[in-house]
Every structure is written in structure tokens, then in C-alpha cells.
Fold each of these.
Amino acid sequence: MIETVGQKGEGYCDYYWTKPTAGDKNYHKISYVKRFAPYNWFIGTGLYVDDVAAQVEADLLTMISKIRFGTGGYVFVNRYNGDALVANGSVVTEPLKLWESFAKNPEKTKVLFAQEHAAALQPGVIISTTLCRN
């Protein structure tokens, strides 16, 4: 930061730093600093990259959960391991496997998920699937 301010007067700094509430672990952080000439100080502010990524993920999942196709269609999002992130048109806040969100036929959904997962691992494959409604 001192080098950035000394050479350019202001700029971005990319480094690792501990979070006040996270013990001794260092996290990736990006800060902006600027020289305050009247007192020969520099002032800065920064964000932890993982905090920004988590907020972007939360915002995207919320937007995706609002997408509808006609009166009964929606988008679902899950991780490759089956963890549901968006299911039945809502952001999933508690641990839930995708197939557990389909109460009437979870085993059929689990098999379908396994097929989709295998297809997703193939380069160039486009997946389009319709699941049975609850």
C-alpha cells in the first residue's frame, strides 16, 4: 500500500489478510488506497473476495428462483453432488438434495439427476430435461 501510494498517489492493492471474525486464517482481499497529502496519510478501503463472491451467488440464486415458464414451470439449480440451491421455485436455505425436494417420486428424480450429471460431464452436451410435477 505504501509503495502504491508513493509511486502513483492512489491505486488498488491485492493481498491476503485476516478477517476480524475468522481467527488466524488469511483471506484474499482487494483494497483501494489514496494519499491524503495535507497530513501525509493514506486512506483505504477493501473487500474480501470470498464475501463478494458469496453475495453475487446469493443475488444470482434469488434472481434465478424468480424465473417462471408459464404457470407451473421454473428453473432449478444444484451442485454436481446433488445439493439443491434453487428448487420448486425458491432458494434453498437448508441442506437438501435435489431429489429430496420431489416428495412424490424422489428415487426417480435421483436416477434422472445421475443421468444429467453424467451428461453434464461430457464436453459439448446440452441438457434439457422435464421433471414430473409434484
Amino acid sequence: MSRSVLVTGGNRGIGLAIARAFADAGDKVAITYRSGEPPAGFLAVKCDITDSEQVEQAFKEIESEQGAVEVLVANAGVTRDQLLLRMTDEDFTSVLDTNLTGTFRVVKAATKKMLRARKGRIVLISSVVGLLGSAGQANYAASKAGLVGFARSVARELGSRNITVNVVAPGFVDTDMTRVLTDEQRKGIVAQVPLGRYAQPEEIASSVRFLASDEAAYITGAVIPVDGGLGMGH
């Protein structure tokens, strides 16, 4: 069956790989993006998830084009890395407003129709950094850790309506964001990973698609690490 899927921040990197994985499986896929030219092949909706009105408008557009969202992947996120003593209030709050509060906005919008349909799949994209911590990323780590508590609370609220809410926590992934690192930095990161390599975006996407499948119908409130073993035990 072709479902209505929404991937926020689906215009590049992990989000684009996730969008492609659902499209390849025959689903109708919408993506949100903030700037630039979105990739072809999807219903692309310009939306800043820090703006509640834009989120509301995006859902109206998606619902009119491909039906109520049945699978939501909350992937949109930003970083503003800085050491704690140099981190400004805006550095901290802006990251939380996108990564955590922005996710709250899109999940709240999606669940309205899911509750009526008595079914739905929600997958939040966190990070191994939210579990391990990372120097210079107190804001990012706090936002990604917050997704776990948020997901588990919503999973308890919505479970009786056949709506599952899970978290995928990627490790270091080979994307444009990580390619800006120097060779020395990349070697240092890989040395910490038991599997000895970066993940490919498609490997994150396959885990997300599994959680949205019938095979995962009895999984909710889970945190699935896809990190090559980097965060094991956390």
C-alpha cells in the first residue's frame, strides 16, 4: 500500500536518503526544506519548523496533495557548535527551537489525523551525541537527548491508538556536514568506532523504513542506535 509520508529536512543528507527509501518502496513522499532548490521526485514544501504557522500551512498543503500524513520522520535539525563559556543564549535556544521544539510542532500537527485514523508511525532522528555527549555541542546534545524523553512520553500517550513513536540515533554519517572535516579529524572519529568506518546515509534510512513497517508494529518508545558501535551501553 502506498502511504503518505513526510520527511522534514528531506532535501539533503540523511533526510534525502530516507525520503528516497520510502519513495523506492512505493510511498508518496513529501519533504520540507528551508532554502535552496529541493530535489526532484518529491512533494517539496518550503517550511521553517521554528514557525508554527508555516508548519500548519505545510500540513494543509501535504494533506491536499497526498492525503493525511501516515508516516512522519522528524529529521530537520541544525548545529551551532561552541564551547560552553563562549556559547550565547541564542546559540543554545536556536538549536533547541529547531531540533526539539520544531519536532514537537510537526509531531503535534501529524498526530491530529493519525488519532482519527487510529494508526500512524512516527520516527524521530536523534544522534549518538545525545547519548554520549560531545565537547562543544552542549546545545545539540541537549536537543537530541530531549527527543528521547519526548518520544517515550508521546509513545505512552498514543499507543492505545495504534501509533508508534521511535527514535533512531545515528553515529557519524558520511554527508556534506561531515565531509568538511579534515582528514585528521575524520581519522580520529573513525578510530572511536568499532566498525571502523562512517555510516552511509542509506544505512540510517533502512532502519527508519523498518520502524515504519508492519514488521515493527510492536516496537514503540525504542531508541535504535545506528552508530557502528560507538555509543554501545548508552
Amino acid sequence: MSAPFLIGLAGGTGSGKTTVGDVLVRAAAGQAAVIPQDAYYKDQPEKPFAEREVTNYDEPAAFDLPLLLQHVDALKAGRPVDRPVYDFAQHRRADTTVTLAPAPVVLIEGILVLHEPALRARMDLKVFVDAPPDERFIRRMQRDVRERGRTPDSVIEQYRTTVKPMHDLFVQPSKQHADLIVPEGGQNTAAMAVLTAFVERQRAEREARPA
């Protein structure tokens, strides 16, 4: 298999990145390795839970960038990786991992994937998913309470103290690096049709090339 087609998918929390990512995976006929940036939060075993709970998880320093780059490079070279699993309820890296096999398409998804120059340099296509702030907040509230064991008050406090300030400082400015900006995420049928056709063609071309 030839080198995979790398897609960077960024956008604010609750912008619809996951929905767009699912569309792209389907366009790759399921032959895609998905790397969620938030699986690469740094582990903080030395800190008590109370300190981990108030860590700023929306700034670049919260992520283990060297490990993420190492895994991206391995997949580009045709080698499998064991990506970490993050326990959002405990704010710790779990003991388990998920094995990702090489694939014709690699999707790197997260709020800050277009902020990091070293990560951008590895991408063939950079996509930024946009959505109104109030809609993003509602989606985050629903997700964190339902899936991550958070209370509404803790979600609101985190949004006020770190999520919104870091979005304005790091996430929103990274939109300038995008090749394609998708307003309204997966509900933007025209953008989804263009992206789907493009990814289908890239997958087919890579499958047809000699290894």
C-alpha cells in the first residue's frame, strides 16, 4: 500500500467534527485509521484528582504531541500503532490501548490539530468545521454529562474558565490554515458531497498504486 492520504479535521468543541469524520470514514469505505487528538492528553499520575479536574485541557500544552507525531509517522510508514485511551471521568490515561492498522486514509481529529505546525506539515488536506458558539456549548454540555460523567455545573465552569478563552486564543485562529472550511458541520450537504467525492478518489488512487 502506498502512503496514506492524511486529513486534519479541526474545529471548536461541539462544532460537529465527529459527524464530519464519520462521513469521511464512510467515504473511505471504512478503510480509514482515525486518530482522535483528545486520546493524546498527557497523563498526570502525580497529581490528585482535584488538581487534574481543574487542568486546562484546551491549550496546546495539554497534549502529548511527540507521541501523536510518532504515531502519525508510523501509520504513514505502513506500521500499526497502539493509540492511548483517555479516561475523561478520572482525567487519566487508561491502561488499555486501541490498535490502529495502516489504512489508505488517516484522519486526525481534534480542536487543535491545525494549530500545531509539525502536525499540519504532515497533512494532505486540512478541514475546519465551524458552528455558532451557542450550538457548540449545548452539544458539549450534552456530551460531557452523558458520556464523560460530568455535572452541568462543572461543564459550565470549565467552559467559562478555559474552553471559551482557549477557543478564542488557539482554535479559532487555526481556521486560517484550513484548505476547506465547513459551516454547520455534517448538516452542510454541499460541503459533505464535495469532501466525500474527494476522499473516495484519494482512497481509490492509493489502493491502485503499487506498494
